UniProtKB/TrEMBL annotation, chains A, B, C, D:
Its EC number is 4.3.2.2. This is Adenylosuccinate lyase. SUPFAM superfamilies: L-aspartase-like. It holds the Pfam family Lyase_1. Keywords: Lyase, Purine biosynthesis. The keyword Transmembrane does not apply. It comes from Afifella marina DSM 2698. It catalyses: N(6)-(1,2-dicarboxyethyl)-AMP = fumarate + AMP; (2S)-2-[5-amino-1-(5-phospho-beta-D-ribosyl)imidazole-4-carboxamido]succinate = 5-amino-1-(5-phospho-beta-D-ribosyl)imidazole-4-carboxamide + fumarate. It comes from the Bacteria. The keyword ATP-binding does not apply. GO terms for molecular function: (S)-2-(5-amino-1-(5-phospho-D-ribosyl)imidazole-4-carboxamido) succinate lyase (fumarate-forming) activity; N6-(1,2-dicarboxyethyl)AMP AMP-lyase (fumarate-forming) activity.
């Protein structure tokens, strides 16, 4: 995580202050549960809530203690006992550090997922708005970077909408998977703590109890979570790449908003570059890469080893902060994207009607010509357009082999654009529901 | 994919014969739909079904045609017209190659998922059986590779069961995501084909219509699919690693089945190695690695480029065949795993009662000692055991600072194993449901 | 590896026949060394060379034996003794399977590297030829996909040449690293075999002795090798991406050769797509992905575990065969690339002289204007061109703030192309040496 | 990068202060070169060096300007002109931002490599010292986690030494590759700047001129650099994994240093865990993962896009800071590793002589028995030891089939340890040179 690519709300989730506050809540709720069960004095629990609830935990003091004991949870508990007094000895009883650490990580990832879901909602809204705005804006569809057949700019955005709607569903599932609570002791047997404590804490923290933990919550949950972020990042890269293509000098069908005062290049005053989308492409690579160590984290030894910990200290913040920043940037880019319908039309006209080649070929086939022959016939004329800029329709009209099968008037009628856009409403209804 | 790590049923899904058969079905169903809608003669559709349905497609002939036209679908269609005759010209009308290729890939991945689900079911069954068999077999739980507190071997397997049950759910979701059908033409606009054809083919092929496609089905679906396989592979690595650890000479609590006639080492006749589990570890690395190019495939240019194709030709078979083989091998390994409960007990006794250190510490705390003091006191005695092999209980009993707080009889009672296993039934009920 | 993306010479390196032949040579050379040292009868070595040298090893028979003993090297040795007779008992004495397997893999990877080096040489030759052909062909340089300043098409190719020349050096280094021989016994101590045997075999097989092995050759060597292939693949992706961009309909400055009879699209007869370059993009993703499991293979347990083996059985062939095919395809693509200089000139003219914006700005600065002011002044005029298609030079000439600093005649002189290409010879000399 | 896993010297390389200082030096040296060539007034260069050399660049002020102009280099140049005055207008003439940014990154990566090389030297020194200390300490070699044949602990460390010595060579090569300078203008043509400026700056900054750049230094260099770090990380994981294995409760042949006051577990006072090595395992995963986006960065569009930038802002610091921290931690772990030779001997004795099985088999073969028969005979006795703990030598002596071929006295002599360690000096000489 670097400040340049970070937003405060997501950063706050990963601050030491937030972490210690969550730790406190987990410990205090566990204590309350034990007090309810008569295992510890109710007064102790009350005292802990009272003193700890009011306190601001001193991050530097905790760090100082950790340097001595070389154990972060013990350092926190020591600091807590400084705040609470002797009643603190009932805190953490029968628990192991991972009970606190893992449950805290679940809370943090669930909160991070909530922010990411809000980001996706904003992006979806932007895509929907712009899709309807350009539902009927014709533009050439391209396969292999080569003009294929017409589509509309709204359809492009509808496609992106559908893709991010899927990503939203994936993230909802991943959030549900990650939101579990383990308060099960040193090897997950509840030897020194009752399973009811886990259930109590889970409910209070908005989590579900982990059905069976070892010392830790199993890391396949986290792997699935970060893999989901990686898939979202990949979709983000796709949309960013589309914008980069559209802004190319030779294409220039759309452009990132370029604010007054902005400088595109230190050397070349004429430049307006799609730097946001390029930046998103790079950020997507990062978010994608974090899925790998998350997957390697799954195979912990026996009831746990701590190799996952350093990885998660890094990718927990890095992946969520980067993706949050990137999704917000992407939403903003879409919201403010400058679209050039005239240029789209110009580009559409560039291949002089070639995009109707399939329709002509089909008509020849319908008129009795074999598929092979009609393909060769149409390809022959198409290549003249491709190579020498000939007008496709004129070439067809001048060829008796064609006009024998298709009257000139029908040929001409085949070059209307509406043919290609007649199902746009159907597709919009599929994507956005009945309007 | 290499034959050594492949099973015939999964291999068959990816054979050219299967592929061409699915292509035929897609084309023929599309033709039927068009015939029903009156777009093509019913007789043509009947002829295609009759001739094509009876034919065995000649893979070598298709390859030969492809070498000339450099296009696989055109090569197939040409061959099909050789079989069907002139009626074949109605086939593929208004469709694009990707309509066939992508829908076929959906069918193949869905079928592959079905085999993998069956593999998971077998593995889950094996884990459950062995978990119940060893529900009460005591064994030491280890964190960081170091003895922690006792658990049971059944609990270890129950944990694996829960993990693979989650993986099963993930795969069900991924299968649903991948099982879509696109018959939408060159840029997804249905310009030359009616959306009803897509709906018809989807239903016949057991798929759902893709709400909005470009020339292709969007690749975030495939990325999510292969990422799911990668997560499953990671869980597989975890279980394989557990077995490898248990079979270590110094641990030897369980062992892969070693068949008569088997040779562990060409040089050392005494060896019995956990080679299956080590092999699974390597295969897991492979399946995991395939998720990356699948994710890089998402950002296709505009309405598609074909960079995804070579990747999928490789990872489609490679990932599913490898994972199928590996899951079957893992299931077999669990089914036949030789377990040594006596050795588990011996290892459990190795640290001379140290695994009760937490319980003693808690009792001291309950008796009024501060958390810090009781930790230091117990640690002092524990280190004598750790470093000089002293008997932990004897040391405690000999220390008045301890016995002042806890009577000797209570101390002794703290070393019973049942304390650690009292919640095993609760956990089993959580994992396997009420028995 | 799939046949579609494979060439016979590289495939042959990985055939069972080649493998068993190399195994035989390693075993037989080791035997010769032992015979020279008087450890085994000379006649035995002679008999083994005579019988084994003449034999064709029966792959199916070896597979059959392996199914019983579950050990590939033992299966081979058993088959060898069937061929050689009782003298075969001296074969493999004091050796371990990995001595044979790892040394064989070194030979295979070194041979594969030799083919890849030849591929790179062909590619370099093609790049050099085309670079000189287009040394002075002007074309617009683009940053961010946006026109920047002019360059030449030859310079683009010279850049690619320099990049692949670096890749060649990397591969030479990686080949040297991988070409080691280990004949050191079960844990690398030479307990049952003399280090001189290793030295003898190494020399005969064209390898260097591994200074210190465990049971295996350390896998950091292989990781470095596959990482090098991954870097080469990334460069390949870069060049392929460049071609894909140049062939875009709106750019069309260069085009993959499109052979007579070729069909670009099953549906659209007008299409000519950069399918080779797109294919190379996908293959690059695959080769890159193989580096990961190779790196995960490094951390074998103690003196070895066999988790690396399944990985290498797959990526050994997959990575080298795919990269060999891809490099050959790339070389062919460059050799036959159709270049359109006229179109390059048209695109160059598209921004109406804007690519001289920096030069004008520098001149204003030289004439005493502050950097900030000259930037703003030039940007103002540039944006008019950008947004409304105004002629950049005319705008400048019409602005007294400009002409006060730069006389009109000097302004006009600033729009010559030679200014941008004056150092092309210098750069070519750097890349290709003095011509 | 997070403070917990960072050391100040490496962090300083990546601070904004260091970056701006390097930017200044690049700009000022370029200005000096231009002054020497008579392109700009000498006084301007002197003034820039004088004012800029004395200044502390105000990071907050630069950030403030960047928020307006949205361009970091322009922001810096604006700030520089605030410091220097009107002479600043000669700075950056004919250069492009990437000239500064890329050359700066080269300097930072080269400096980072120097620190990493020092880390490797410390680690190598530690490995060598401990290797000689334990050159003759016998320990069991293990393959597949199973006892194989004896080796010495010094040999294990010598192996690690040789591996890290290779890594050192790789890093030296990667450093040389990355240390290039590009001052070549907007598309690498030197249109507005003389190549001599690049040569001048390169020499002053300790770099080599990039033979042919586009707008940027080609990213295959960076990919190779980060791939090298990833390989080093993989070796680190291997050594860390070895330590984790050796510290397992059942093995306990070596242990990380456990300082007084340290707490192994918050719950279990008896624990001493290999947490440093586990931590290194996790950090290795991270460093490895950074190689991927670095490789994806290679395929920039045309003369550059800026997608690489965000990646490098993250992995530049993250990879080098993490690896620096990890290598230092690994060196410290080796330096202070507590080794238990008695425990090694106990474990060595565990399989009751089984590790001599190969030697006995070879002797039987030498005595005329077929390889197959001797294998079966030795395996039969070995399995009795394996399964029932029988003494291997006694079993052999009691079997006439054995003693017929090998006299009892010779059998007994086969169980001496010196047989296995006789070539240790040879191997040490190979690794460390003649002592």
């Amino acid at each position: 995580m670097i400040p340049r690519y970070a937003r405060p709300e997501m950063v706050a989730i990963w601050s030491p202050e937030t972490k210690f506050r969550i730790w406190f809540e987990i410990e205090a709720h566990a204590l309350s549960a034990m007090a309810e069960m008569g295992r510890v004095p109710k007064e102790a629990a009350e005292k802990v809530w009272e003193k700890g609830g009011a306190a601001t935990f001193d991050v530097e003091r905790i760090d100082e203690i950790e340097r001595e004991v070389k154990h972060d949870v013990i350092a926190f508990l020591t600091h807590l006992s400084e705040i609470v007094g002797p009643e603190a000895r009932f805190v953490h009883q029968g628990m192991t550090s991972s009970d606190v650490l893992d449950t805290c990580l679940s809370v943090q990832l669930a909160r991070a997922a909530d922010l990411l879901l809000a980001d996706l909602d904003r992006l979806l809204e932007a895509l929907k708005t712009r899709a309807y705005e350009h539902k009927d804006t014709p533009t050439i569809g391209r396969s292999h970077g080569i003009h294929a057949e017409p589509t509309t700019f709204g359809l492009k955005l509808a496609q992106a909408y559908a893709e991010f709607a899927r990503n939203r569903e994936r993230l909802v599932a991943a959030r549900a998977e990650i939101a579990t609570c383990a308060i099960s002791g040193a090897v997950g047997t509840f030897a020194n703590i009752d399973p009811k404590v886990e259930e109590y804490v889970a409910e209070k923290m908005g989590l579900k109890p982990e059905p069976v933990s070892t010392q830790v919550i199993p890391r396949d949950r986290h792997a699935a979570f970060f893999a989901t972020l990686a898939v979202i990042a990949s979709s983000m890269e796709r949309l960013a790449t589309e914008i980069r293509h559209l802004q190319r000098t030779e294409v220039l069908e759309a452009e990132e908003y370029f604010s007054p005062g902005q400088k595109g290049s230190s050397a070349m005053p004429h430049k307006r570059n799609p730097v946001l989308s390029e930046n998103l492409t790079g950020l997507a690579r990062m978010v994608r890469s974090y899925a790998l160590p998350a997957m390697e984290n799954v195979a912990l030894w026996h009831e746990r080893d701590i190799s996952h910990s350093s990885v998660e200290r890094m990718i927990g913040p890095d992946a969520t902060i980067t993706l949050d920043f990137a999704l917000a940037r992407l939403a903003g880019t879409i919201e403010k994207l400058v679209v050039y319908p005239e240029r789209m039309q110009q580009n559409l006209d560039k291949l002089a009607g070639l995009h109707n080649s399939q329709r002509v070929m089909l008509a020849l086939t319908q008129a009795g010509m074999s598929r092979e022959d009609s393909y060769r016939l149409v390809q022959k004329h198409a290549m003249k357009t491709w190579e020498r800029g000939a007008d496709f329709l004129s070439e067809l009209k001048a060829d008796p082999e064609v006009t024998q099968k298709i009257p000139v008037s029908e040929l001409e009628a085949m070059f209307d654009l509406g043919y290609h856009t007649k199902h746009v409403d159907t597709i919009f209804a599929r994507v956005f529901g009945a309007s």
